[in-house]
Write a structure and sequence with these properties.
This protein is an all-alpha fold and 369 residues long. It is built from 14 helices and two strands. A two-stranded parallel ribbon has the order 1-2. Residues 354-369 have low confidence and may be disordered. It comes from Amycolatopsis jiangsuensis.
């Protein structure tokens, strides 16, 4: 394991048991306080959305238009990050409250919830940072790891990243089509038909709402309303991109081969989540606006625990890591974002990776012999 002491098989399993015990303690403590938190947050989000859209009706006044965009942006961020992402992870399925169930929730985003639950909850969280399995590494368009074979196409890495940030919800939507697998002959276009139908239906709903219905409701102010809605979507996209990339791709975050992740024990899976994630430090408000994905380490360890619990356990997770000599990557947003930006530019160029015939460093193996 690069940059860490090598753990014996016994230590890895002890590490896993410590984290299991921590998780169970939180599960045993879940209750009405968690439900109240989420319901209050949903009320706040809805109030912000109504307020934001209402302010856009007075969009002929620049201060009202700007306030409407800002308020609607906050509503969309809360809907996607602290509410939608977390509810769709099943973090509140234990309540058996239908509207808080992961299978029923649909978010304010062009990516259909059903598609996202498969590509994110299953593929990404099962195979976190496993090259060839985790399609979130580069989202099929970026070179985000030196082990990805370089091609002249990747000279556009900075441009592709910029476009992905601006159009992030659309990138997440198209991600489910797995176009790169179709190009490589690993998947047929016919297999994409069911996915595509859901995408078209959901995208039509979002376009109809933000760019047709609400603009028309404001009459002669329709162009300003349309611009306001587009601006709010842009703010949400840039914010989501920054938070997600800073949790997955700073310089010290590791990736893994399929062989390293094969037949993992629980302790080995936990270890991979620690080494393949990074946190972002900040204020309580910052954590809420990030959907608590600023605690990406804790989220990757316990994706089905209510995210509001991550700040409560972060100190203990860090202490467990220190006890076993493991890194706990964290830093402010500016530091993590700069690290990601440098990686995007660096990996646009040839090289930056092991030789084609390089063997896996035994100290990187997650399974000790």
């Amino acid at each position: 394991m690069t940059g860490t002491q090598r753990l014996t098989p016994e230590q890895v399993e002890d590490f896993g048991r410590d984290l299991d015990a921590l998780r169970q303690r939180i599960v045993d403590n879940l209750g009405e306080e968690d439900v109240t938190y989420l319901r209050n947050l949903i009320k706040t989000q809805r109030a912000l959305e109504v307020t934001g859209r209402g302010l856009l009706f007075a969009g002929f006044l620049p201060p009202a238009w700007l306030a409407g965009v800002a308020t609607l942006s906050l509503a969309k961020i809360l809907d996607n990050m602290e509410i939608g992402h977390n509810v769709m992870h099943g973090q509140y399925d234990w309540t058996h409250i239908p509207e808080l169930g992961s299978q029923r929730f649909e978010w304010d985003n062009v990516a259909p919830a059903e598609n996202w639950r498969h590509s994110h909850n299953y593929i990404h969280h099962t195979f976190t940072n496993v090259l060839g399995k985790d399609r979130d590494i580069g989202y099929g368009i970026l070179r985000m790891d030196p082990a990805q074979k370089w091609h002249p196409y990747y000279l556009g890495n900075p441009l592709y990243a910029t476009l992905l940030a601006i159009l992030f919800e659309w990138g997440v939507m198209l991600h489910d089509l797995e176009v790169e697998r179709v190009v490589q002959g690993e998947r047929s276009w016919a297999e994409n038909v069911p996915v595509l139908k859901k995408i078209v239906r959901k995208a039509a709903q979002q376009i109809g709402k933000d760019y047709v219905l609400f603009p028309l409701l404001t009459g002669p102010l329709a162009p300003l309303t349309l611009l306001g809605n587009a601006s709010a979507n842009l703010v949400r996209n840039l914010w989501a991109f920054a938070i997600i990339f800073c949790g997955h791709f700073p310089a010290d975050v590791e990736s893994f081969t399929e062989e390293e992740a094969e037949n993992e024990t629980r302790g080995q899976w936990y270890l991979r989540q620690i080494l393949g994630s990074a946190n972002i430090s900040g204020s309580p408000l910052f954590h809420v606006l990030s959907g608590n994905l600023s605690h990406q380490i804790e989220h990757h360890l316990f994706p089905d625990l209510p995210a509001r619990r991550y700040p409560q356990i972060a100190g203990e997770v860090r202490e467990i890591c220190e006890r076993y000599g493991l890194p706990y990557h964290t830093g402010p947003l500016r530091k993590q974002l700069w690290s990601v930006a440098k990686k995007i530019v660096r990996l646009a160029l040839p090289g930056q990776g092991p030789a084609p015939d390089a063997t896996v460093d035994p100290d990187r193996q997650l399974r000790a012999a």
